[in-house]
């Protein structure tokens, strides 16, 4: 889950939007969506200083990007529009994951209810199993 895959790798021939997409996907894969949004929102008004902060935070950011693309990403983050694009993309990906989790949970509940109807027995929850209700 946390490993790098082809969709999160940044290559020299990528466009700015593709770099933003790759960084957003990597942030989501590492389950850092909320902290990333908080950080980006707090530095957006000072996007130039925020990009300079990226230089200071170089060891952390390099977990997302290769060394040769690090400066390109820092330059990208100087522009507020690019910061906003990254925030929106992270938010959208995070929301997509939440929707998918809700869908899976609802499907699991539906299957459990179908099983209960089929067998005529209600599935016991953990407390009922422990205390043998």
Secondary-structure element pattern, one letter each: HHHHHHH
Low-confidence stretches: none
Q: Count all strands and give the number.
A: 0
Count of distinct structural domains: 1
* Total of helices: 7
User: SS-based structural class?
Assistant: mainly alpha
Distance between the ends: 39 Å
What's the overall geometry?
elongated
The radius of gyration is 21 Å
Can you give keywords for this protein?
71% helix; mainly alpha; elongated; 133 residues
In short:
This protein is an all-alpha fold and 133 residues long. The protein has one domain. The chain contains seven helices and no strands.
Descriptive notes:
With 133 residues, the chain is mainly alpha-helical. The protein has one domain. The chain is built from seven helices and no strands. It has helices at 16-29, 33-43, 47-56, 58-61, 67-76, 80-119, 126-131. Helix 2 (33-43) packs antiparallel against helix 6.
């Amino acid at each position: 889950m946390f490993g790098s895959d082809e969709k999160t790798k940044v290559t020299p021939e990528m466009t700015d939007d593709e770099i933003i997409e790759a960084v957003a996907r990597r942030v989501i894969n590492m389950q850092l969506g909320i902290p990333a949004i908080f950080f980006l929102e707090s530095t957006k008004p000072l996007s130039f200083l925020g990009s300079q902060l990226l230089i200071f935070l170089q060891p952390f950011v390099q977990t997302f990007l290769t060394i040769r693309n690090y400066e390109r990403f820092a330059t990208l983050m100087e522009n507020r529009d690019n910061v906003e694009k990254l925030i929106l993309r992270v938010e959208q990906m995070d929301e997509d994951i939440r929707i998918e989790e809700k869908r899976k949970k609802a499907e699991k509940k539906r299957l459990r209810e179908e099983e209960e109807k089929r067998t005529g027995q209600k599935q016991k929850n953990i407390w009922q199993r422990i205390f043998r209700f």
